[in-house]
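I hope you will forgive my troubling you with a question about protein structure. The record follows directly beneath this note:
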Amino acid sequence: MASPLRSIRARLTLGALIVVAIALVLGAVVAVQLVRVSLTDGVAQTLQQDLETISDRLDDGDMSIDDIDDDVLVRVQGDTDDDDDGPRDEVNDSDASALPIVPEDTTVRVQVDGDPYLAAGADSDRGALTVARSLEVVDDAVAATGVVLAVAVPLVLALVGVVLWVVASRALAPVERLRAQVDAIDATDLDRRVDAGRDDELGALARTMNRMLDRIEHSQITQRRFVSDASHEMRSPLATIRQHAELAQAHPEASSLENLSGVVLDEGARMQELVEGLLVLARLDEGRGGAMALTDLDDLALAEAQRLHGIGVGVDARGIGPGRVLGSEPLLARAVRNLVDNAARHARTLVTIRVAEREGQVVLQVEDDGTGIPPAQREHVFDRFARLDEARARDAGGSGLGLAIVREVALAHGGTVTVGDGASGGALFTLSLPGTAS
């Protein structure tokens, strides 16, 4: 089982927390700045009102600078007194003497005796007027806001983390149940299936797993049957060879080297055919069909017709016309030979081979004039090591893999193979493959 810190739940929670943390920190910084700007703007507006009022009243002589409350620092610098050669410098508080001259229509942040002030300036009849108000309340409010956010952000993150963990745990609980169900299925009970009752993504995943289990179960059943049949088929020629060898050893007068070598050669050829068939099927099962190239199916069919002529089997090849497909030539040649050999074993006098192009398909037909195949057994003939009635038994040299190989070759090339009744009452095998432009 994966470490809790590396689980999907932990990664989802951590990823979401990182995003939320970044958003909250950025939001907190922006909030602090907005508070600072808002409060400073308020002080600036009040300061402008103070500046206008004080300037007007000083110019009109309605008030003296000493009458101004010390909540506001006021300094006037500029004109020279008649009785004094130096410039006049008037302040309403001793701290106001530290105020600089501020250009008109501007505000600046200044330090007066270690305290922050916002100062504004204007030109008056009495000189350069500077008015300042304390920013201590603003700084205190900004600091308090920062402290609140510094405490609130971690608390919100903790709460969000807990909520995310709980939500992720509940959302992933069906996944854990599904994992446990799949983990409980082993090779001995592949007939079990997982719960696929949900109508969501997990339900679709469960149904996909059930289909996968169906394929695995079918593959296991097929493999077991295949291994059982293969071992049985291999045992038969080996037993025949051993029996004749034991007979020749125990009773030399009852056998001869010629008879023994004939048996060994015949049974060895049968075993070789069986092993080669098994290897071909194994490659096809693994999807290793070989290199694809343009192949003339009619050339393969004509070669098989000539081969049958050479061994004395009657062949009608007049129906072979042009037919080109994209495929593996060795596999297609094997499929054609298997169909022709099957027909030759069961034909009474004649094997008919046809090749034609029909609606984008290249169709190969191989027909014999034998006893045919009953409808109930026509699908079964393509099974590996299929055993039919005596009329189509493998006593004539078949391995039981030829037609199975034909079907796998057809499937590997996107085609089909079927069996039906021929015109003369025998079996008619039809191999249909996607055609290609010549």
Remarks:
- Residues 390-396 have pLDDT under 50 and may be disordered.
- The first strand starts at residue 72 and ends at 80.
- The first helix runs from residue 8 to 60.
- The two ends are 57 Å apart (CA to CA).
